[in-house]
Structures are given as structure tokens and as C-alpha cells.
TrEMBL record, chain A:
<feature type="transmembrane region" description="Helical">
    <location>
        <begin position="275"/>
        <end position="296"/>
    </location>
</feature>
<comment type="similarity">
    <text>Belongs to the binding-protein-dependent transport system permease family. LivHM subfamily.</text>
</comment>
<keyword id="KW-0029">Amino-acid transport</keyword>
<feature type="transmembrane region" description="Helical">
    <location>
        <begin position="239"/>
        <end position="263"/>
    </location>
</feature>
<dbReference type="InterPro" id="IPR052157">
    <property type="entry name" value="BCAA_transport_permease"/>
</dbReference>
<dbReference type="GO" id="GO:0006865">
    <property type="term" value="P:amino acid transport"/>
</dbReference>
<dbReference type="GO" id="GO:0005886">
    <property type="term" value="C:plasma membrane"/>
</dbReference>
<keyword id="KW-0813">Transport</keyword>
<keyword id="KW-0812">Transmembrane</keyword>
UniProtKB/TrEMBL annotation, chain B:
<dbReference type="GO" id="GO:0006865">
    <property type="term" value="P:amino acid transport"/>
</dbReference>
<dbReference type="Pfam" id="PF13433">
    <property type="entry name" value="Peripla_BP_5"/>
</dbReference>
<dbReference type="InterPro" id="IPR017777">
    <property type="entry name" value="ABC_urea-bd_UrtA"/>
</dbReference>
<feature type="signal peptide">
    <location>
        <begin position="1"/>
        <end position="37"/>
    </location>
</feature>
<keyword id="KW-0732">Signal</keyword>
<dbReference type="InterPro" id="IPR028082">
    <property type="entry name" value="Peripla_BP_I"/>
</dbReference>
<dbReference type="InterPro" id="IPR000709">
    <property type="entry name" value="Leu_Ile_Val-bd"/>
</dbReference>
<dbReference type="InterPro" id="IPR006311">
    <property type="entry name" value="TAT_signal"/>
</dbReference>
<protein>
    <submittedName>
        <fullName>Urea ABC transporter, urea binding protein</fullName>
    </submittedName>
</protein>
Length: 308, 420
């Protein structure tokens, strides 16, 4: 498998694949971070996570149309506004869903799987009614499109860099929010021991609602970012959900660090294997390895030590 | 039997009636025309199909929900438009077409179940429908058991021929061979990188493509498949850069296309430079809407139909389609093939002088449509269409410029020797 290539080629292959893996890593982190917050911190299995992402994508689509129609001069910066709008739209919908549906199901975590699955179908149908069954194209500002050539064979895609930057910003913000802010402390207290947290005066209901909303909001931003690399259609969210759960479960559901580590492992493994094997084969092997490791270590790569 | 469309007959007689201005004459003429244009039901329907003195029922069977709804919407629209136009001309054998639409819901067992419902409960005279090969394979035994007639619109991998199906799209060789021949002859291509989604159609198509390329003494430098819905193509794009093929032969389907072309562009491969050149048989104008014209500009596609085809039939078709479904709509290859279905069926019924499935089947080979938007088509003995293959050059506005078309109609060859 290596013998087809010269040493110089192999060096550049690993450089290119490493970078492709980094982009994939960023995508995985963006996909999984919101889910990890909801699933890991609250135990809610949110099957509608993909649809929240697509909500962000559709918001981006609407805003890009708005800008190209009414403010073509400002088209270059619409993306930032779209991401902020996606964040708040998905977050607001998330808060509403938590209030209307999820909060009644905290005692029955498996039922959240069914309820959110239903929600995902409803959202898909809504998208189909509003935007049509076909995929919509989101045009990008020019500065986000090209690539930076490094050598003959290595070009660094600018939108890949952008996604990486965004991932860093969001990960750091979530970290600060969860581990440095007062609110994060409350959330973590609720996760570890809900009755006790309530007893010391933490408003657990409010904390739940904000946590769920935050998870959905991050999904919205992720969806907005993915319009640069993926497709936006009513059912596109479904494409992401399996990978997203894979990353979160492999990382150890309750650990955000675990999510990041798991995203890195899976993306690099897959990216490298994709080059030397076929694409489908790489996916199968990745799944096999993940399943194998989960059999040896059911709690995932990283797990919080909680006394139950 | 002489066939005069009802509306024409009515028009002629009602004008005369107006001139004479006698109600009695007009009434008697109306009666006479009705009896003339519509032969007795017992004579044209001996097998208990859903045909009455003034109506004939057909089925439309596509996915309007689920993942395939994205693609199949256009087919449903085209079939409804054709039926509407046929009705406006007076229908088939003097009977208006009524349709029953069923939803296959992107689920193959559902397709089989619904096709049985249409044939057994509704006794429809024909069914227009299916898109994926999987859905077609699922309904095939039902159509053969209950002797129905299916008009199937999608270009597909071939290796099939059924007395109960008329294939209005291209089978594999009709698209692949002409496209590759063109790119070799006109662009001097010598090496190819084959890339596709991982299921039967791309794999079979690529097998035929590889055989054809190697037969010419040229090289395939890579062949890769990715699962349906895959959205990360960075690795294979890197491989393409390293192997430097003259042609990327890309037959990725559905939403994956969007990711593929966006990432191709982001990785610095400019298709307008044609180095490498990209040839596809899976991206129609429909998909470009999602991909974005700026991302696919410069790519080539081998199909039988493009919305930009410059002929009077197509202009009328595009105009009617837009009038019914809105100015923004785009029309892809399969949409046009779906539009042919009701027209081919009408022609066969009228040639047979009967709605009976066996007679329609017998009448089908040799049926020709001079009014097809793609120009001219004819049904082959093997139930596929003779049609031309064209190569389109993708433009920024999401349309294709037709840069080449085969001189002759291409003969359909669903079981190509040496290519299986």
C-alpha cells in the first residue's frame, strides 16, 4: 500500500492527509460539541440535533439571500451575521423545545430519544414545506472560496481554515463558560447531583433550559459553517447524526475533553485510511475500531468520576 | 380508426355551430362528436382496467417524502404537466386522464406495496414512476405478476429488460460511451480517475467506463467509492491531485455532490482550466441548484437532455413548465424523461386502439415522438429509447451549454457485450 509512492510523495501525502484530517476534526467537534453538552450534561438523547444544524444552515441561506438582494456591498461580511443569527435562532427554538417537551421527560431519558426523533421528522417536514424538497445553494463571499497554495500538491482551503478557527473559538468559549463561569459551575453541579444542587438553591430548571438551548445554538452555528462544505436540504441533518453520536459516545458522554479527543482520533484515523484504502472501507474500519474500543472501555475514552 | 383530438373536433364543430347560430344543430353536433371521438369502453378495455366512457385512470408513484423526495419532485411535476396537456388536447381515445398519486416514501417495500395497490385495487391503465434502481427492482415482480405497465424515467445501469417496463431514460452505455469518446477525441484525455457513490448504479457505470477506457488503451489511475451522503472528500481530492488524471470522472449522487464540488473548488482545483477536466453523468441542473453554479462552472456532463437545448419542442416545454411551476424552476435530464412517459403511453394506446396492457405493449416498439423536448425519440424492441447523447458545459448561472451531440440516435443496449 505504501510501495506505490515515492518517499517524497509519502511525506506530502501525510502532510495533506494530516491537514484534511484536521478539517474533518474541526467538523466533528462542531457537530458533536452541542450534542455533548445536551447528551453528556443532561442525559437527553437529542435525535433532532441534525435538524438544529440544518436550521442554522437555512438561516444562513436566508441571510445570504437578504444580503445579495438588499446589501450587495456588504456581502463579504454576511457570514458573520448569519452565524450569530443561526446561534440565536437555534438557541431560541432549543429553549422552546425544552420548555414544551424535554422537561417532561427528564425522568425517562430513553423516551427523549423517541420524542426528539419525532421532533426531527416534524422539523424536516417543516423545512420541506417552507424551503421545498430540493437542496438550496448558499453562495459564499469570494474571500472564503479559494485556497492558499503551499507546494505543488498542497493547497490549504480557506474555508477549511475558517472552520478550524471557528472550532477553536467555540471550544474555548464553551470551556470558559463551563469551567470558569458561575453558570457553568451550576450546570456541572446539576449534572453531578440534581437533588443536591437544587437543595443548595440552584434553579435546576433554568439551568436545564439554558444548557439545552446552548447545545442547540452551537448546532445552529455548526450548520451555518457547514453550508461552506456540505449540502443544505430538509434531510441533510440525518447525514450527520450517526457520526455525531459516534464521536460523543466514543469520547465518553459526559466529558467535553473526551469529545474533542475522540473527534481527533476518529478524524485522523479516517483521513489517513481513506487515502490508502477506499472511502467506504475506511468508514467500516473506523467503526470497527470504535466498537472494539468501546467493548473494552464502555465508558468511552474519557469519563467523569461520579459517585452514583 | 381515424383519430381526431377531441378539442380540435369540438373547435371545428362549435365554430360552425356559432356561425349557424342554431342551438339544435349545435346540440346534435356535440352528441355526434362525443360518440365519434370516444369509442365504446367495452371495445377499448377488455381486461377490466379503470376506464369509463369519459375517463381513464393512471398511477403516479414517486417518493414525495423521505430522502429521495429531493430528486423525484421534478418527475412528479413533469408527469402531471404531460397529463394536463394531453387532457387539454382531448385525452386518450376520447377519455380524460385521471391520476392517482401514491407516495413511495423513499422506502422500497412501500413502493412494492403501493404499486400492488395501484394495479390490483385501482386497476390503473399505466403507472409513471420510480427513480432509484432499488425502487424499480422492488416493484418489478409486482408489475410482472399483475401485468401492469410502468414508465420509468431515470437514467440507470442497464442489465434489465422487462415486458412490463418502458425505460424513458438512458441505460448506461448511452451516456457513458459517448461521453468518454468525446472527451478522448476532443480533449485528448489519456488518464481517468473514477469516483462515485457506493451503490449499484455508480459501480456498474464505472465498470462500463473502465472497460471502455481500457479498450482504447488509456489508463484508469484511480477508482474510489464513498457511502451515500458522505460529505468529506478532502482525502480523495488530495489523491486526485497526486495522481494528476486528465479527467475526473465523477458520478457522486445527491447531497454528496454539493460537498464534493465545494471542496474541490476550495482545494484549488479550478474546473474552468480543464486541468483536470471533470466529466459527470450524475449532475443535472437540479443538483447544480444545491451545488452553486460558481462551484461547478467548467465541468462537463454527458446526458440526453439539458434545459438549454435549442429547439422549438424544448422551448415550448420549458415555457409550459415554468408557467405551471414558477419562473425559478430548473429542469433536469430525468424530469424531461418523466415528461415523455405519458406521451409515449398515449401514442401506444392510440396505435393499439385499446387500453389493454398486452395490446399497448405490442404496439410500443417503434412508437416515436417527434414532439419530445429532447428532439426525437423512438421506442426500441428492448423497451428502451433510441435517443441522442449530448455533452453540456456547466456555466456559472447553473445552466449547461450544449457543446456536442451525437449525430445519430444512439441504440439502447441494456446488455452490452464485453462490458458486464
Amino acid at each position: 500500500m505504501f510501495s506505490d509512492y515515492s518517499t517524497a510523495e509519502l511525506v506530502s501525502i501525510f502532510a495533506m492527509q494530516g491537514f484534511a484530517g484536521l478539517i474533518l476534526f474541526s467538523v466533528f467537534v462542531l457537530m458533536a460539541l452541542g450534542l455533548a453538552i445536551i447528551f453528556g450534561q443532561m442525559g437527553v438523547i437529542n435525535m433532532a440535533h441534525g435538524e438544529f444544524m440544518i436550521l442554522g444552515a437555512y438561516v444562513t441561506y436566508l441571510i445570504s439571500n437578504l444580503f445579495s438582494e438588499y446589501m450587495p456591498a456588504l456581502f463579504g461580511i454576511y457570514f458573520f451575521i448569519a452565524m450569530i443569527a443561526a446561534f440565536f435562532t437555534a438557541g431560541a427554538l432549543g429553549a422552546f423545545v425544552e420548555w414544551a417537551m424535554i422537561r417532561h421527560l427528564y425522568k425517562r431519558p430513553l423516551d427523549t430519544l423517541l420524542a426528539t426523533w419525532g421532533l426531527s421528522l416534524i422539523m424536516q417536514q417543516l423545512y420541506r414545506t417552507v424551503f421545498g424538497a430540493r437542496e438550496v445553494g448558499v453562495s459564499l463571499p469570494d474571500w472564503l472560496m479559494g485556497s492558499i497554495p503551499m507546494t505543488d500538491t498542497i493547497d490549504i482551503p480557506i474555508n477549511g481554515l475558517f472552520v478550524m478557527g471557528l472550532t477553536i473559538v467555540i471550544s474555548v468559549s464553551v470551556y470558559l463558560l463551563m469551567f470558569k463561569s458561575r453558570w457553568g459551575g451550576q450546570v456541572r453541579a446539576v449534572v453531578q447531583n440534581r437533588p443536591m444542587a437544587g437543595a443548595v438553591g440552584i434553579n435546576t430548571e433554568k439551568s436545564d433550559r439554558m444548557t439545552f438551548a446552548l447545545g442547540c445554538a452551537i448546532a445552529g452555528v455548526a450548520g451555518s459553517a457547514f453550508t461552506m462544505i456540505g449540502s443544505t436540504g430538509p434531510t441533510a441533518g440525518q447525514l450527520y447524526i450517526v457520526d455525531t453520536f459516534l464521536v460523543v459516545v466514543f469520547g465518553g458522554a459526559q466529558s467535553l475533553l473526551g469529545t474533542i479527543a475522540s473527534a481527533f482520533t476518529i478524524s485522523q484515523a479516517q483521513s489517513t485510511m481513506e487515502f490508502f484504502l477506499s472511502g467506504s472501507m475506511a468508514k467500516v474500519l473506523t467503526l470497527l475500531v470504535v466498537v472494539g474500543i468501546l467493548m473494552l472501555r464502555p465508558q468511552g475514552l474519557f469519563a467523569l468520576k461520579i459517585r452514583h | 380508426m381515424k383519430k381526431v383530438p377531441l378539442s380540435k373536433a369540438l373547435g371545428r364543430y362549435s365554430r360552425r355551430a356559432l356561425l349557424c347560430a342554431t342551438a339544435a344543430l349545435s346540440a346534435s353536433v356535440m352528441l355526434a362528436t362525443a360518440a365519434y371521438a370516444a369509442p365504446k369502453t367495452a371495445a377499448v378495455n377488455t381486461t377490466g382496467l379503470a376506464v369509463t366512457d369519459d375517463e381513464v385512470t393512471v398511477g403516479i408513484l414517486h417518493s414525495v417524502t423521505g430522502t429521495m423526495a429531493i430528486s423525484e419532485t421534478g418527475s412528479v411535476q413533469a408527469e402531471k404537466l404531460a397529463i394536463e396537456q394531453i387532457n387539454a388536447m382531448g385525452g386518450v381515445l376520447g377519455r380524460k386522464i385521471k391520476y392517482i398519486q401514491e407516495d413511495g416514501a423513499s422506502d422500497w417495500p412501500t413502493f412494492a406495496e403501493k404499486s400492488k395497490k395501484l394495479l390490483v385495487n385501482d386497476n390503473v391503465a399505466a403507472v409513471f414512476g420510480c427513480w432509484t434502481s432499488a425502487s424499480r427492482k422492488a416493484v418489478l415482480p409486482v408489475f410482472e405478476q399483475y401485468n401492469g405497465m410502468l414508465y420509468y424515467p431515470t437514467f440507470y445501469e442497464g442489465l434489465e429488460q422487462s415486458p412490463n417496463v418502458i425505460y424513458t431514460g438512458q441505460e448506461a452505455t448511452q451516456q457513458i460511451l459517448a461521453g468518454i469518446d468525446w472527451v478522448v477525441k476532443e480533449k485528448g484525455a489519456k488518464s481517468f480517475f473514477l469516483l462515485g457513490s457506493d451503490y449499484i448504479w455508480p459501480r456498474t457505470s464505472n465498470k462500463i467506463a473502465r472497460k471502455h477506457i481500457e479498450k482504447k488503451g488509456l489508463k484508469v489511475v484511480g477508482e474510489e467509492y464513498y457511502p451515500l451522503g458522505h460529505t468529506q472528500f478532502n482525502s480523495v481530492i488530495n489523491k486526485i491531485k497526486l495522481k494528476k488524471p486528465d479527467v475526473i470522472y465523477g458520478i457522486v449522487v445527491g447531497g454528496s455532490n454539493v460537498a464534493f464540488y465545494k471542496q474541490l473548488k476550495a482545494a484549488g482545483i479550478d474546473l474552468t482550466k480543464e486541468k483536470p477536466l471533470l466529466l459527470t453523468i450524475s449532475v443535472t441542473e437540479d443538483e447544480i441548484r444545491g451545488i452553486g453554479g460558481e462551484n461547478i462552472e467548467g465541468a462537463y456532463a454527458a446526458m440526453k437532455y439539458f434545459q438549454s437545448l435549442d429547439n422549438p419542442n424544448n422551448k415550448a416545454f420549458v415555457k409550459a413548465f415554468k408557467a405551471k411551476y414558477g419562473e425559478d424552476i430548473v429542469i433536469g435530464d430525468v424530469t424531461q424523461a418523466a415528461y415523455l412517459g405519458p406521451w409515449l403511453w398515449k401514442a401506444a394506446v392510440e396505435k393499439a386502439g385499446s387500453f389493454d396492457i398486452d395490446k399497448v405493449r405490442e404496439a410500443s416498439p417503434g412508437i416515436e415522438l417527434t414532439t419530445a423536448p429532447e428532439g426525437y425519440v423512438r421506442i426500441h424492441e428492448n423497451h428502451h429509447l433510441w435517443s441522442k447523447t449530448r455533452v453540456g458545459h456547466a456555466k456559472k448561472d447553473g445552466q449547461y451549454d450544449v457543446v456536442y451531440e451525437t449525430k445519430e440516435l444512439m441504440e439502447p443496449d441494456p446488455f452490452p457485450k464485453g462490458y458486464q
